[in-house]
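Hello,

Our lab assistant flagged a job as stuck in the queue for most of the afternoon. It eventually completed. Since we weren't sure the result was trustworthy after the delay, we are filing this so someone can double-check. Below is the sequence as submitted and the structure that was eventually returned. Let us know if re-running is recommended.
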Amino acid sequence: MNDRRLENIIGRLLQTGVLLAAAIVLAGGAFYLIQHHSDRTDYRAFVPGSQDLRTLRGIVRSAAHFHSEGLIQIGLLLLIATPVARVAMAMVGFALERDRLYTVVSLIVLLILAFSLVRAT
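-- returned structure --
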């Protein structure tokens, strides 16, 4: 694997991730507007979203049932996962090129990203 091929693969990964995430969020937003177009909004009190949408399992379950909020959330999670996948792909590419320095640097960045994502919940 050479640098140019790795750049093309990573570029395609980023494009696909962002476009797929945008399509899912757009579909979820459209479903939400169709389902809730006549709801009245009360701005005097904040009402947090469903408890199910605060866990990965709940988000996946909600999206699998085509609930609009679940689709929007899964699209946003995919958007967050896209740069993480980019770092993982770069690490694999550098390992295949036998570039130990960049493999280790990519691994450190990937561990920091994973730790921050896990720690945030």
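-- support follow-up --
The delay was a queue issue, not a problem with the job. The result is valid. Residues 3-34+51-119 form one domain. The mean pLDDT is 90.
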